[in-house]
Design a protein that fits this description.
Layout lengths: L30 H19 L3 E2 L1 E3 L2 E4 L13 E5 L10 E4 L4 E5 L16 E7 L4 E5 L34 E8 L5 E11 L8 E7 L9 E6 L5 E3 L24 E8 L5 E11 L8 E7 L9 E6 L5 E3 L3 E3 L8 E3 L34 E7 L8 E6 L6 E5 L2 E6 L5 E2 L5 E5 L3 E4 L6 E2 L4 E6 L3 E2 L4 E3 L4 E10 L9 E7 L2 E8 L8 E10 L4 E8 L5 E4 L4 E6 L2
Parallel strand pairs: 1-4, 3-5, 6-8, 19-20
Antiparallel strand pairs: 2-3, 4-7, 5-6, 7-8, 9-10, 10-11, 11-12, 12-13, 14-15, 15-16, 16-17, 17-18, 21-22, 22-23, 23-24, 24-25, 26-29, 26-38, 27-37, 28-36, 30-31, 31-36, 32-35, 32-38, 33-34, 33-36
Amino acid sequence: MAEIRDYSVTADDNNAASPNGMANGCAPSTVNDTWREGIARMKRWYEDCQGAKTTTGSSNAYLLAASRVVASYAAGDAYMFKANHTNTSAGSTLNVDSVGAKAIVTPTGAAIAAGSITSGGVYLVAYEASVDKFMLIGGSHSGGDNPFIYNSSPTLTLENSTSEDTSGGRESQVVFKGLQSGSEESTLVKITASHEGTSDDQKGQLVIGVNDGDDNDAPTTAVTVASTKNVTFAGNVESPELNLKNPTSEDTSGGRESQVVFKGLQSGGEESTLVKIQASHEGTSDDEKGQLTVGVNDGNDGSSPTTAVTIASTGKTSFSQNVGLGVADPVSFLHLEKSDATAYDATDSDGQVSVGPTIYLENPANANNTVGGQIVFGMRSTEEQARIGATGGSSPSLVFGTADAQKMQITNDGEIAMPLQPAWGARGTGSVTLSGTSSYSVMANSVEVTDIGGNYNTSTYQFTAPIDGTYYVAMSFCATTNPGVTGPAQWLFKNGSVVKELGINYSSSRFITITGIYILALSAGDTIEQRVINYNNVTVTLDRSRGFFGGFLIG
């Protein structure tokens, strides 16, 4: 059976036999059949295009039984139907009279989204033969009964017809409302665009009001965008993410920068840049390395605050000025201050970690062979360094090192070990004979017992002080022949001059060891030595191997 789409727009071409047309010279008896058929075709077309038909089907598949006889789809075929269900996702189809399911798409050819067709809604589709799909005409194409504008440059214009220059005038609004559980209508958000100021100009402002729960139809202003482009927030700004993007493609150091600038007005109205936080690219490689700098105005920086803090891509943080913890005006590069009246308890451990201004160094990998923490002093990594460190484990010690070597250790028991502390000890060999009253003679202590630091000379028999300090000195001698009363004695000489007599043999007996001890201050480069002298006329022999000359640096 032919339908209205089979008629020709050229009248003479509609000359088929009745009832599909009216041939020239047709019998009068065929006129009524042809006319009635034409009326029926228009009625069938009317029902198919006026929403009189309801679809069947489910999910994203819609089935339509048309009033017209549809054996195939033709370009421009239109169907208006009432949907029996809401589409659940993209990819909806329409099948008319079992001709075949065809995708329902937007006028741009995109699949309609879930909710674009809702149960009970009336929709118009037209068959587009070039893509073999049904296009949904009008509608939201995005769900619900939302308005939809479709053209090459969609624009929604709201124009206030009042001529005025008032502040807040010429306003247009977009109001968002909803129904509470008791069906009470509430105004949730109101966006108002209006004139700024009272001048006869084009300045605009945008105000976003949000209902705080009791605002009724006048939501409280939350955000204001002025004509100067300044944005004012009435409350706290809480957001999981704020994106600042530099559109310039570059690999320069300091490039790709984004900034947050804090400004204010001085009492005279002058604008000042107080602080500037800048994120930028680090280095010149084609990579993702970033760096963060914080600049603070020192009072004369203008719009370029002086860099105070820099965080490199490695995570290392550098400060250009003194850093104070607990103190407002640090006087050194790192200044810690904390007022604490807690009495110091040397036996307390974790209980006093936070007492007073404390620096706490902790290594979670606690073991006897690990470093519990350390403070390193050095110009750069390639130079020898000095350090103070602590060993881990159950019996921690405090160690001190210089020139990349350990020099002192305080053990867990409080013992102090200084394995490199300057010390020496020497004795002689053979014997020396003193006959009668003699002058001072250097005791030839040529055999080193110990010489930490290498400061004793076995040729000159002298100890040379390596550093300024206080030194402990001990010396002894032993006569192997009867010396007589008030015979041999020993003296301490410094730089060739007498310092102190450190023992005299008053006994007339032999094999008596005379020992003397002395503490004195020495400057670096001073030399000391043991000398002996005989005060009587009795010849006496001293056994060098039984004597001793030694000492050490006290501090």
